[in-house]
Amino acid sequence: MPKKAEDKKTKEETEDKQEEKPKKRIKTPELLRGFRDLLPEEQPYWDFLRSTVRGIADSYSFQRLVTPVIEDKDLFIRTVGKQTDIVEKEMYQFETPGGEKVALRPEMTASFARAYINHGMLDRPQPVKLWDMGPLFRHDRPQAGRYRQFNQFNFEVFGSEEPIIDAQLMVLLHSIFKELGLDVVMQVNSIGTPQTRQEYKVELVAYYRSNRARICDECKRRLQKNPLRLLDCKEEGCQEVRAEAPMIVDWLDEDSKNHFMQVLEFLDEIEVPYVLNPHLVRGLDYYNRTVFEVYLAKEDNGRSQSALGGGGRYDGLIELLGGREGTPGCGFAVGMERVVAALREQEVSIPVRRPDIFFAQLGDAARRRGLKIFEDFRQAGIHVSEAFGKGALKSQLDLANKLEVAYTIILGQKEVLDDTIIIRDMDSGSQEIIDAKKVVEILKKKLAETGDKPIMPPLDTETDLS
Ligand code: HAM
After folding, report:
1. Nearest CA to ligand 1 atom 14
2. For 23, which of 9, 66, 179, 452 is 20 to 30 Å away at the CA?
3. Which residues partner with 434 through β-bridges?
4. Which range, of 126-140, 289-303, 312-326, 367-381, averages the lowest pLDDT?
5. Dihedral angle at the C-alpha atoms of 457, 461, 465, 466, nearest 10 degrees?
6. For residue range 276-330, what is the model confidence (pLDDT) as tens digits?
7. Is the CB–ligand 1 distance for residue 341 below 6 Å?
8. How far is it, in rounded angstroms, from Cα 294 to Cα 143?
9. Could you tell me the distance, in angstroms and rounded to a whole number, from the CA of residue 457 to the centre of ligand 1?
């Protein structure tokens, strides 16, 4: 064989061999542990939750404040507390290329307080009522209902120490759950002032020291670092010890006691379901006086329950951040993933955004015209679904049936030429041919007559990163 031909053959053989080689498997990147994709199927729950929260925020005259997800890490160390789990173990922190030491926000209250001071909100009529919802980050141990990125809706009131504010926040919180169709109960306590808390801590530590042999290793650590968190431990042995522990309400000063009594009176008046929990202390350092958490009233599948949300008063926070001395504050936050999970578990029926009509087309000319018709409907506020990717009329009508639309409009070659369009009533199967120019107008009328209007409130199109 001539050399050239031989070379060619060898080359072909090599190429063949290469083709035969099993394809190298390309590894698809995985989600980071503790992070989630919120899939389209879940979105109706999120939309329902967001629009409910937004509606209640409006009706209680709260204004939205959106703060960045990255802040100077010192903001959280100073407010949430150096010795807390959130700061000590869970904060995502890093140095920027410019050398700033920053953190992904683990909560919103500190950012709200910073913004209140930065923007001179003290000069606005008090109290200033603010809310937001969005993502937070905590490098916690992932488990059901506990993620490393999660969302909260968060409400804060700055500038009033009146007990009615604490009560109103709990009423508002309760109203959100009522509108969502979830039965909840509030757990309430008062943790007094930093001074009385200090005195209580001494007593608590002494009590736990005398029971050191009965508590878990983590609690032995808490005894040194963050004694109030001893009361939060879920270990059986520790809970037995807690049952006999001194209670913080017995250490309250007169003013805090009166304040708390008034909060409870307001709650009784408005019939918000609550129970007193003398062991409730919360895991962030900035609280004083009223603290509360909200739980599902029903046990969820017998699992040990975690709070849906929590909050309380923080009268020293603004001052701690260099704001005017004695500016009080109170607020709460709720974990939105936990609420969505509860809505799903309890099979709460939620409004689903359905299209009003379906647009079916046959052939290229109809498809081209379809783009324009689709736009005309959209501008008229009629929600149209289509399947431009599908050819056969039957599969398009099947889809229209699945979507439970009242009408399908059908456009084929003939209709394009005649400038007409077919309207099919999906219930009766009857069809009529109409002038294409009048289709939007006619369907608007038909939909208004049957009352078949969108039942889902408008979608939240704001910058929710969830
Ligand atoms: P928090 O108790 O740390 O309070 O969080 C409030 C809620 O956020 C929790 O009850 C829970 O539903 C949800 N949450 C917390 N961590 C996670 C997680 N890793 N995964 C999923 N959900 C979670 C605060 O954040 C305070 N800033 C509340 C507040 C506002 N206090 C006064 N104003």
Report:
1. 335
2. 9
3. 421
4. 289-303
5. 20
6. 999 999 989 999 999 999 999 976 554 457 899 999 999 999 999 999 999 999 9
7. no
8. 20
9. 27
Q: How far is the CA of 335 from the centre of ligand 1 (A)?
A: 6
pTM of the model: 0.87
The per-residue DSSP string of 19-42 comes to HHSPPPPPPPPPPPTT-----GGG
171 closest CA partner among 263, 283, 308, 47: 263
Q: Is 156 in the pocket of ligand 1 (CB under 6 A)?
A: yes
What's the CA-to-centroid distance between 220 and ligand 1, angstroms? Answer: 25
Q: Please state, in angstroms and rounded to a whole number, the distance separating the CA atoms of residues 286 and 107.
A: 12
Residue 140 Cβ inside 6 Å of ligand 1? The answer reads yes
**Residue 297, Cα to own-chain centre: how many angstroms?**
20
Ligand 1 centroid to Cα of residue 262, in Å, is 26
H or E segment and range at residue 241: helix 236-243
Q: Indicate whether residue 386 lines ligand 1 (CB < 6 A).
A: no
Q: Which residues is 466 bridged to in the sheet?
A: none
Confidence (pLDDT) at 298: 79
